């Protein structure tokens, strides 16, 4: 495997961006896990806090770890078009740099922790033809509950709180929409620690997706919002992907 940091220009964002990539050696074509970071972190965090390079080698998968800073993987109300960047531009950029990356939906998977967990579901719902497996870990599924009256942070990203329900930022709306519009639905893996403050959100989303007919694997176990939990769970995600690939 090769682990590298790639610095490149994004036309969508109009600025230079960075990503860490783990790339298999000696393979003509290989599947890809798009792995997203949480709040306060960047494209280096999964490589620094987990053994993702070793796991990728064991499973024969490329891993792309981009940064979108604090943009919530969203086309911001006032700011940058991060969801378009990740969902549309970045795959084309990566496949131009690494021609072995498969473009088939069956070979592309997306995961992330916390804010990145939200982002993984948001991207899977916005671009249902891109990803066959979506694995949110300890996800902050409902940004609306994080709005604060003394801050414009979330209004800059998602707009006024009164406009959130039914928007592209609302994952309850987006998952319902995709279940009804004939889109191909990804397999979903949700995991959260029982001591995590987000456990209630994760249970609620699991029930919601199940009621809509999604193929959901849900796991909760003792653990909190930390890298020990995510290091273990990303291995579960890769095992799930292996099982999915054997079914093809």
Task: Write out the CATH superfamily name.
Answer: Alpha/Beta hydrolase fold, catalytic domain
Highest-level CATH class:
Alpha Beta
Oligomer: single chain
Number of helices: 8
Query: Quick check: average pLDDT?
Result: 97
Number of domains: 1
Q: Radius of gyration, Cα only, in angstroms? A: 17 Å
How does CATH name the architecture? 3-Layer(aba) Sandwich
What is the 3D form?
A: globular
Number of distinct beta strands: 8
The share of residues in helices is 25-40%
- Note the main sheet: 8 strands, mixed
Strand order of the largest sheet: 1-2-4-3-5-6-7-8
CA-CA gap between termini: 25 Å
Low-confidence stretches: none
H/E series: EEEHHEHEHEHHEHEH
Structural class comes to alpha/beta
- CATH domain topology: Rossmann fold
* Proportion of beta-strand residues: 15-25%
Describe this structure in words.
- This protein has 248 residues and is of the alpha/beta class.
- It has one domain (2-247): 3-Layer(aba) Sandwich (Rossmann fold), CATH 3.40.50.
- The chain has helices at residues 45-49, 52-59, 82-97, 115-126, 153-158, 171-180, 199-211, 227-247, and strands spanning 2-10, 15-23, 32-36, 62-66, 108-113, 133-137, 187-193, 216-221.
- An 8-stranded mixed beta sheet has the order 1-2-4-3-5-6-7-8, with helices on both faces.
- The longest helix is centred in the last third of the chain and has 21 residues, at 227-247.
- It is globular and about 50 Å long.
């Amino acid at each position: 495997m090769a682990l590298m940091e790639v610095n490149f220009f994004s036309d969508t964002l109009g600025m230079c961006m960075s990503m860490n990539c783990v790339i298999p050696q000696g393979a003509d074509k290989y599947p890809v896990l798009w792995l997203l970071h949480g709040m306060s972190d960047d494209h280096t965090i999964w490589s620094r806090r987990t053994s993702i390079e070793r796991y990728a080698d064991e499973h024969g998968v490329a891993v792309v770890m981009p940064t979108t800073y604090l943009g919530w993987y969203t086309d911001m109300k006032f700011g940058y078009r991060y969801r378009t960047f990740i969902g549309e531009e970045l795959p084309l950029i990566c496949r131009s740099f690494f021609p072995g990356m498969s473009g088939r939906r069956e070979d592309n998977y997306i995961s992330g922790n916390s804010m990145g967990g939200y982002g993984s579901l948001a991207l899977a719902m916005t671009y249902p033809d891109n990803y066959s497996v979506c694995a949110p870990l300890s996800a902050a599924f409902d940004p609306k509950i994080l709005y604060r009256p003394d801050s414009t942070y979330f209004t800059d990203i998602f707009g006024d709180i009164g406009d959130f329900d039914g928007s592209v930022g609302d994952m309850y709306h987006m998952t319902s929409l995709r279940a009804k519009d004939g889109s191909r639905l990804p397999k979903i893996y949700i995991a959260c620690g029982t001591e995590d403050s987000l456990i209630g959100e994760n249970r609620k989303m699991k029930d919601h997706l199940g009621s809509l007919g999604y193929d959901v694997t849900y796991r909760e176990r003792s653990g909190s919002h930390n890298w020990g939990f995510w290091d273990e769970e990303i291995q579960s995600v890769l095992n799930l992907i292996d099982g999915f690939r054997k079914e093809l």
